[in-house]
Write a structure and sequence with these properties.
The structure is a homodimer of 232-residue chains.
Chain A: E1 6-10, H1 14-26, E2 30-34, H2 40-47, E3 51-55, H3 63-70, E4 78-83, H4 90-95, E5 100-104, H5 108-122, E6 133-135, E7 138-141, E8 146-149, E9 152-154, H6 158-169, E10 174-175, H7 177-184, H8 195-206, E11 217-220, E12 224-227
Parallel strand pairs in A: 1-2, 1-3, 3-4, 4-5
Antiparallel strand pairs in A: 6-7, 7-8, 8-9, 10-12, 11-12
Helix pairs in contact in A: 6-8
The structure holds a DNA duplex (30 and 30 nucleotides).
DNA sequence: GCTGTTTGCTGCAGTGCTGCCGGGAAGCCC
DNA sequence: GGGCTTCCCGGCAGCACTGCAGCAAACAGC
């Protein structure tokens, strides 16, 4: 993370959304737009953004409820955005699980500063930073791009390694095929591609993980894959 | 990691400081006051507060510099507080390492909400790691998406697991079919769908819960379902 | 008691998802 | 270019999961 600097912007006013999007992109963020409140949760799962900016005045779903429902599925920072005269109270918003609350019209640089503060705080102790990741007998050494299983080196192909690292860095979270695909390749996921499945299959084989009853990489039916941190 | 609820309040206006102190104490925080900017760093080290509220208009030391110097010695959240017409800019403050920035005069409950949001975020044990939920013999492990009953793993389908988690996470509350449906599926509940009933039935079977006299998942006639936390 | 409504649960059929093989293309190193 | 590895992708087999219908039982109100 910080590996992915993707921000999910939930905003129904297209003009405003585009403005914010352009501004954030000019500042080296990637931005995904979502207009429909009902699709936010699914989008959050599929894209796994680093942060969500949530406008409360959405058609389709009440923003507060949305925020609350989002929490179990999204652990990262949520920044609420709302008009000054909104009946939705700042205090309430924060209590419903938002991490920050900015009143519209927001000065772009204020918004940017607050986004940066949230990301800095949340992703500061990023395990991805070179340090070795240890999960019981499994040890991943990003500095050497090397993986050890019970002390023995496991030879992984380039994509296999990338995939494993992506999973391990967010152990305990379900990662969608779409997210994994985008993470490894620089092209669009068409929703049908089975490449990830094949890589996972290889990985399991090399890590001695039984797909019928996996202890490391679990398949979440209809959702994606999950790396299990707990060593045993 | 200070599991305490001590807040270090840095403020030179005694009257205001006392007001804030009283208010926070009334809300179950402990508050330590510090008026002198030069002593803040030492105080932060000595007291190891959970959070620092920092007024920028201090005699003795410029607030921004202070914030910057504080950072290496204090890892917890810092909330900046300043007058609206201050020349110290919000953006600058956040860039200097503050985690939040509130403009005076601050409504007490807003301040409180923001303090709580910061603490919640910072002191939840590693954001990526969810704790296991324990209910007597039943143990739900979100990090591995695994459910244990008396030590034995219970194999649940994807939706069964989601449903159980939704219920367990709000144990003791009646959850309507509509809520559960929306929580699991991302589509509208038509008011007639019996899917939830069937899932509940499966769950009860797998959890050895007798529907005639359920000890885990109780049916609330006409309203929904209720997860009972108390172990049997 | 009776009635209409709500719930429990099973069985089945269909579908959509996953695992992974195997051929061939594409990259890489000499 | 040759030999090697890695990767892509079509495709098939298998089955987990879903949704539905249907009926019995429980319930609330009268």
């Amino acid at each position: 993370m910080s590996q992915n600097s993707l921000i999910l912007l939930v905003e129904d006013d297209r003009r405003l959304a585009q403005l914010v999007k352009d501004f954030l992109e000019a500042n080296d963020f990637q931005v995904a737009l979502e207009e429909n409140g009902n699709r936010v949760i699914r989008q959050a799962q599929n894209l796994n953004p680093a942060l969500i900016v949530l406008d409360l005045m959405l058609p389709g779903k009440d923003g507060l409820t949305l925020c609350k429902e989002l929490r179990p599925n999204f652990k990262g920072p949520i920044l609420m955005l709302t008009a000054r005269d909104s009946d939705v109270d700042q205090v309430l918003g924060l209590e419903y699980g938002a991490d920050d609350y900015v009143i519209k019209p927001a000065e772009p640089r204020v918004l940017l500063a607050r986004i940066r503060a949230l990301l800095r705080r949340y992703y500061q102790n990023d395990p991805r930073e070179q340090e070795a990741l240890n999960f019981g007998e499994l040890c991943i050494q990003p500095s050497a791009r090397k993986v050890l299983l019970a002390g023995q080196e496991v030879i992984l192909s380039s994509h296999e390694y990338d995939l494993l690292l992506a999973l391990a860095a967010q152990a305990g979270q379900i990662l969608s095929r779409e997210f994994l695909f985008n993470h490894i390749y620089n092209r669009e996921y068409d929703g049908l591609d089975r490449t990830i499945d094949v890589r996972i299959s290889q990985l399991r084989k090399k890590l001695n993980d039984n797909p019928e009853n996996p202890t490391r990489i679990k398949t979440i039916w209809g959702k994606g894959y999950l790396f299990i941190a707990d060593a045993w």
